[in-house]
Amino acid sequence: MAYSTRMRSAVGAVRAALEAAGLGLQDARFARHGSHEPDADAPLVLVACSGGRDSMALAAVAATVCASLGLRCGVVVVDHGLQEGSAAVASQAARRCEGLGLNPVAVRRVAVRAEGEGVEAAAREARYDALAGEARARGAAAVLLAHTMDDQAETVLMGLLRSGGVDAVAGMPESFERDGVRFLRPLLGLSREDTTGICRDLGLRWWDDPTNGDGADGPLPDGYPLRSRVRHDLMPFLERFAGGGVAAHLAQASRLARRDKALLDAMAERATAEAVAFADGECGDVVMTLRADVLEREPEAIRLRVVAHALGRAGIPCTSRHVEAIDRLIVRWHGQGAVSLPSGHSANRKKHVIRVCQDGLHANRRCSG
């Protein structure tokens, strides 16, 4: 079968992502024409599939690429249980993936509990937990995610609406590790139009999530997820306003921003190693300490990054307001009291050390030396 231009682009993108992750050609025989079965102990690549057009296209392309490299290729379908009939949708997606020759095909149902966060965020956390759990259980070498250029552009806009800064503009990385599992996003250079075309070229059927609001007249109500409203309302407006090309422009901007973010992260990691210590449980309720005398020598961008990342590693949710308040303890300290943080934590400075505690007063009394 002759591949379309978009199919060739997708095949090249998936192959490049796998090779960059160390999952290249397994044996010379797979470079020869003809069908070759991967070895039983060949690395396993899993595709996260919702049954939508993007992930169905990725599943089909990954099956082709993995076969040409001598890799095993399977699928994980996550059922969030948030919509009526979700189990049937997941089962249908699994059957379609089985029809593509993917093996294994696993369906994982998760419980989404939005405790202090939105349903979208809770569903994302539950989904990644399920994908990582399945990958670890099967010893998978990588999990492929079907985010496209359009998803990247939407992510950048959502980041700007919610917070801003380099991290927001940087969007989603091409690869990352979570819970010991490598995740890859090989389709960030392809558009949603490309994945739709691939499905049509291959005769694949897909499921459209009703929460996306596809086909709705007028702006979506506030009850729809933010991503759906950005996709349905904001992106088309920007495309009309700019005369097209907005998604590609935002995706390119995110690639450039990720370079800057990588440098800032590396600098922050070096400062963290010198200035931050996480508690070992021997000092009451102290969660971590920060050396103010070390951090005050760093540029503001690095200080703020160190504090934000350290709080995140300690499992303390924070906003820019909390991070900036701790930064004032570092560079503008004049004996002021503790900074109140979420989840019953506080940060208090004594001499050159800032202690972040679960119960600030009690911990500071016990650990005042």
From TrEMBL:
Q: Which reaction does it catalyse?
A: cytidine(34) in tRNA(Ile2) + L-lysine + ATP = lysidine(34) in tRNA(Ile2) + AMP + diphosphate + H(+)
Q: What class of enzyme is it?
A: ligase
Boundaries of every tRNA(Ile)-lysidine synthase substrate-binding domain copy = 290-347
Q: Which residues form the tRNA(Ile)-lysidine/2-thiocytidine synthase N-terminal domain?
A: 45-214
GO MF entry, a single one: tRNA(Ile)-lysidine synthase activity
Taxonomically, the superkingdom here is Bacteria
Q: Which parts of the sequence bind ATP? A: 50-55
One Pfam family name from the record?
ATP_bind_3
Q: Where in the cell is it found?
A: Cytoplasm
UniProt keywords (A-Z) are: ATP-binding, Cytoplasm, Ligase, Nucleotide-binding, tRNA processing
> What is the E.C. number?
6.3.4.19
Question: What does the entry note on its domains?
Answer: The N-terminal region contains the highly conserved SGGXDS motif, predicted to be a P-loop motif involved in ATP binding.
Its family? Belongs to the tRNA(Ile)-lysidine synthase family.
Q: Briefly state the protein's biological role.
A: Ligates lysine onto the cytidine present at position 34 of the AUA codon-specific tRNA(Ile) that contains the anticodon CAU, in an ATP-dependent manner. Cytidine is converted to lysidine, thus changing the amino acid specificity of the tRNA from methionine to isoleucine.
Q: What is this protein called?
A: tRNA(Ile)-lysidine synthase
Q: Origin organism of this chain?
A: Bifidobacterium phasiani
Q: Its gene?
A: tilS
